[in-house]
Automatic annotation (TrEMBL):
Belongs to the universal stress protein A family. It comes from the Bacteria. This is Nucleotide-binding universal stress protein, UspA family. It holds the Pfam family Usp. Residues 1-145 form the UspA domain. It comes from Pseudoduganella namucuonensis.
């Protein structure tokens, strides 16, 4: 039914548990997985004329976020490997996380987006998380929203 499933992660415990469920779903469907972490674009300091010496350059920031992204998608890649599910991972940069998720899914030929009902902003929200809600409203692809039944232990 599904051939390629995009599984999103923000690196939180909630997101990791959702990703595990996504890998299991992909295994059941016989689908390939694309694991995605979306990092925020580099933000210049408000007072560009006075850049603090400890403020990272754009290159340093992007390298650090690529490392963080690799760390965040690693559990998905490892889970796929254990279950025999073909998988690749990537880090993308965007101002709008939701729009980037939709764009990447389309660009990479995904036919389903699998994501959690909440991410890092988490359990305090009564309704869907803002990124999930925006993906649902912008995506022409099916979106499977996974809701955890209990809160995971803190990171």
């Amino acid at each position: 039914m599904y051939r390629k499933i995009l599984i999103t992660t923000d690196g939180s415990a909630v997101s990791n548990m959702t990703a595990c469920a996504g890998v299991k779903f992909a295994q059941q469907m016989g689908a390939e997985v694309l694991a995605l972490f979306v990092a925020p674009e580099y933000q210049y300091p408000i007072y560009v004329e006075i850049i603090p010496p400890s403020y990272p350059s754009e290159e340093e920031y992007r390298a650090a976020m690529q490392r963080a992204g690799a760390d965040h998608v690693r559990p998905i890649l490892e889970s796929c490997e254990r279950k025999g599910v073909p998988c690749s991972g990537m880090t993308a940069f965007a101002e709008s996380t939701a729009q980037k998720i939709v764009d990447v899914a389309g660009q990479h030929g995904c036919d389903l987006i699998f994501m959690g009902s909440h991410g890092r902003s988490g359990w305090g929200q009564l309704l869907l998380g803002s990124v999930t809600n925006k993906v649902l409203s912008h995506s022409k692809l099916p979106v499977l929203v996974h809701r955890l039944l209990k809160e995971p232990l803190p990171d």
